[in-house]
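help with this:

***
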Amino acid sequence: MRFVTETDGVLLVDKAPGMTSHDVVAIARRALGTKKVGHCGTLDPLATGLLLITIGRGTKIQDLLMSEDKEYVGALRLGEVTDSQDADGEMIEVHPVPEFSRQQVEEAFAKFKGDFYQTPPMISAIKKGGVPLYKLARQGKQVEREPRFVRVYTHEIKAIRLPEIDFRVVCSKGFYVRAYVNDIGRELGCGAHLKALRRTKSGRFSVEKAVNVEELKTLPREQLVTRILSLPTVSRFRGA
């Protein structure tokens, strides 16, 4: 591959389902002919939506960008618990789902609003002794996870079609929507897993302004470069 002069900035990408965040980075490297590419805030393969791709000197502000609040829309399925807490995992529990009223559902969601401690999933990229938890999980090991202080700024129950519930949540960095759904399922007494997830915002950046993965693969480099937000633009957008 012939690498060209580095371009500096941030590209908003709408991640497709079934791929990792690192897959998107690899596609961006090839499309832009640029080695120095990173991403902010990992999305699981199941998830879609906004992924901030940092390019050139943009990689130096990854931590700043990752510290922003996030907005997600998703769907949970009650009565089924998986080892990964999402639809990509193995089923480990099945329970009957009562005919919950909207008030009961709202009360369960309300338990996880504001500031609270959240235990990250065992299947995650968090490291214990230098080893990612998901690798330990593959070996059948369970380890203690340090609860994280997180915040839910607001949530919305968009639709209830038991056993599924559609929702929107605005949360702090380091928040696991899988764990959030798992906790809500436990609160309702029948368990739950995350069926679908889409990140719609990160800070003031919206998925509406993003290029999709197909465009990332096929658009000429010259066109893609015009979609990259310069570092001064990113700074102004963040209000810095």
About this structure: Residues 21-32 form the longest helix (12 residues). Residues 40 and 65 are 7 Å apart (CA to CA). The domain at 70-201 is CATH 3.30.2350.10 (Pseudouridine synthase). The mean pLDDT is 90.
